[in-house]
Amino acid sequence: MINSELDTTDIEILKLLQRDASLTNKEISFKLHKSIATIHERVKRLKEQGYIQRVVAILNRKKINRSLIAFSQVLLNDHTADTLNTFEQEVIKFDEVMECFQMTGTFDFILRIATSDMEAYHSFYRNKLATLPNITTVQSFFVLSETKSDTAYPL
Amino acid sequence: MINSELDTTDIEILKLLQRDASLTNKEISFKLHKSIATIHERVKRLKEQGYIQRVVAILNRKKINRSLIAFSQVLLNDHTADTLNTFEQEVIKFDEVMECFQMTGTFDFILRIATSDMEAYHSFYRNKLATLPNITTVQSFFVLSETKSDTAYPL
DNA sequence: GCCAATACCGAATTTTATTCGCTTAAAGCA
DNA sequence: TGCTTTAAGCGAATAAAATTCGGTATTGGC
Fold first, then answer.
1. Average pLDDT of the segment spanning A150-155
2. Binning pLDDT at 50, 70 and 90, where does residue B4 land?
3. Among B58, B98, B103, whose Cβ lies nearest the Cβ of A56?
4. Which of A31, A79, A151, B94 is least surrounded by Cβ atoms within 10 Å, i.e. has the fewest?
5. Structural domain boundaries of chain A?
6. In chain A, positions 35-74, which contact chain B (CB-CB < 8 Å)?
7. Could you tell me the CA-to-CA distances from A81 to A3, A88, A102, A143 in Å, in that order?
8. For an interface test with B, which of A59, A83, A142, A143 has the most B Cβ atoms less than 10 Å from its Cβ?
9. How far is the CA of B27 from the C1' of C13 (A)?
10. Is-above-0.85 flag for pTM?
11. pLDDT for the residue numbered B83
12. Domain A68-142, architecture per CATH
């Protein structure tokens, strides 16, 4: 394969590894009717070319005391590069902040916050988030139930 | 270890595997100054006890044509169990829906939608999401930039 | 002091990953 | 058509990793 185009085998490999990256090449080769060497070569290339960014362990957040997920929408006072950069640089330092996106629309950022409970969220909000400069408003929404949460893109 | 409590070694293993699950037991044993057999035993237990839910490959979404991420906030007409269940069951069938959370607050669900571009989002919205019954409003916000996006919980 | 339980380890074994040389299929071209 | 080049694919050999197992050391209870 010269470059960048994915064929059916590549796509099937990516589908499998998105679901379970602990599959062995032998198992994959059996499912896709290819040799172990071929699968090995394919996976190696998919990593080298950056399709597979990394392989990670997904933890059960309830077992490590992160039962509460909040989405917090943040609006800043102004939108100078300096204000935006400062906010980003500071907010991502907080352990509770799993994700930070700058957004289009009526607010500037959306944060995904993981804490143990509402008390911990409150503490994060008062002692960390709200201390950052140039914040106009923060609106928080809490996850009642997780219907779907997937890291695997359909291919 | 009798049950469920994590000691320092467990926590260090989880930290490492959250970042890079392709680390070998040998590499981990070197970092943590334990034997390979001990690391093997620990990791096995962490999986069995459900701390490690699964091991997955994280793909570069830009390389697989999922450049646009949207958060869509959905408000339903009513909140009967039936309406809620139907919405959940149907919306998670759409390929574009990576996450679906029922939320507290002024709307009912927040969806994370991954599409190739705005046109694809529009098509998803018109032909899929908006066809579901009992939707009052949908408000969509688009990701301009991803400052932080992490699957690893600090421990 | 003795016993039981547990964490830990080294070494042996099994399984997997990785390498390499060969074969086959396809594409370009005279 | 027949020749050449290129790349995908493969099996077998090798290297590395996972897994198993028996034994030691430590700790806490009695």
1. 96
2. low
3. B58
4. A79
5. 8-48, 68-142
6. 49-61, 63-64, 66, 69, 71
7. 37, 11, 12, 32
8. A59
9. 21
10. yes
11. 95
12. 2-Layer Sandwich (3.30)
